[in-house]
Amino acid sequence: MLKWALIFFILSIVFGFFGFTGAARFSKGVAKFLVVLFVIMLLLAILFIVLAAMAVY
């Protein structure tokens, strides 16, 4: 139980740092970029899988 308390304490310190320093705004932009990047990579992977499956059959 003490382990979880320590984990939540550390997380609260980190999130407090992001909230009070304005770094959350920067993190939000990075997160949006990464989501778009990974969605594009997912769509490309699906496209290549479908094309490979069509070539096999």
Write the SSE topology.
Blueprint lengths: L1 H20 L1 H34 L1
Keywords: Cell membrane, Membrane, Transmembrane, Transmembrane helix
GO cellular component, one term: plasma membrane
InterPro entries: DUF1328
Give your account of this protein's structure:
The chain crosses the membrane at residues 6-26, 33-56. Pfam families: DUF1328. Keywords: Cell membrane, Membrane, Transmembrane, Transmembrane helix. By secondary structure, the chain is an all-alpha fold. It has one domain. It is 95% helix and 0% strand. It has helices spanning 2-21, 23-56. The longest helix is centred in the C-terminal third of the chain and has 34 residues, at 23-56. The chain is elongated. The N and C termini lie far apart (55 Å). 0% of the residues are buried.
Task: Put the structure in a nutshell.
It holds the Pfam family DUF1328. The chain is mainly α and 57 residues long. It contains two helices and no strands.
Q: Rg from C-alpha positions?
A: 20 Å
Globally, the shape reads: elongated
Topology pattern, helix = H, strand = E: HH
Distance between the termini: 55 Å
Instruction: Please mark out the parts with pLDDT under 50 across 5 or more consecutive residues, or reply none.
Output: none
Helical fraction: over 70%
Integer average pLDDT: 87
Total strands:
0
Largest sheet: none
Structural domains: how many: 1
SS field, number of helical segments: 2
Strand content: under 5%
Structural class: mainly alpha
GO cellular component, one term: plasma membrane
Keywords: Cell membrane, Membrane, Transmembrane, Transmembrane helix
InterPro entries: DUF1328
Transmembrane segments: 6-26, 33-56
